[in-house]
Write a structure and sequence with these properties.
about 150 residues; mainly alpha; Arc Repressor Mutant, subunit A; three-stranded antiparallel sheet; 7 helices; about 65% helix
C-alpha cells in the first residue's frame, strides 16, 4: 500500500520528509505484525529482545546493564522486563560474585526453547511480509545505516 493511501495525506515538504514519515509508518507496521506473532508465544517485543540478547551469549550470564545496552528500544525498563521473564521461568537471576550490587541473568532451558520457537515464528513472518529479495534487503539496510550515520 502506498504511504499516501495509508495515512490519507500526500503533503510532504520534500522527499526526505516523505521518507522519514514512511520509515516511521513502516516501523509501526512491522511492530504490529511482530506483536501479533509474539503474542502467540506469550511474549512482548521487549521480552523477546531480551531473550534473543541472552541467547546470543548463552550459556554465559549477562548483567542487566549489558542487556540494556544491546536493546533495540533504548528506553525499555530492562529490570521490569527481566522480572516478568523470571515469573514466566524463562530466565534466572544470580548475584555477581565480583560486584554484590550487580545481578547476572541467564536463560533457563524453557527460555531457550521459547526464544527458539519464537525465532521460527518471527523469521517466517518477516519473510512473508518483507516483499524484498536479498539484494533489496541489503540495499535497504545500507540506506538505513547511512541515515543513522548522519547523527
Amino acid at each position: 500500500m502506498k504511504l499516501e493511501e495509508a495515512i490519507k495525506s500526500n503533503r510532504f515538504t520534500d522527499p526526505a520528509h516523505k521518507a522519514s514519515v514512511n520509515l516511521m509508518y513502516t516501523s509501526y507496521w512491522m511492530k504490529t505484525h511482530l506483536n501479533t506473532v509474539l503474542k502467540e508465544n506469550g511474549l512482548t517485543i521487549e521480552q523477546f529482545n531480551v531473550l534473543r540478547i541472552l541467547k546470543g551469549k548463552h550459556p554465559e550470564q549477562m548483567c542487566v546493564k549489558d542487556i540494556g545496552s544491546r536493546m533495540i528500544e533504548k528506553s525499555s525498563n530492562v529490570p521490569r522486563i527481566i522480572d516478568r521473564l523470571l515469573i514466566k521461568k524463562l530466565v534466572k537471576r544470580t548475584p555477581s560474585r565480583e560486584d554484590k550490587r550487580e545481578t547476572l541473568i541467564s536463560l533457563t532451558d524453557n527460555g531457550l526453547k521459547q526464544v527458539e520457537s519464537s525465532n521460527i515464528l518471527v523469521d517466517a513472518m518477516q519473510k512473508r511480509i518483507s516483499g524484498l529479495d536479498d539484494s533489496e534487503a541489503t540495499l535497504l539496510s545500507e540506506l538505513l545505516e547511512k541515515m543513522r550515520n548522519t547523527d
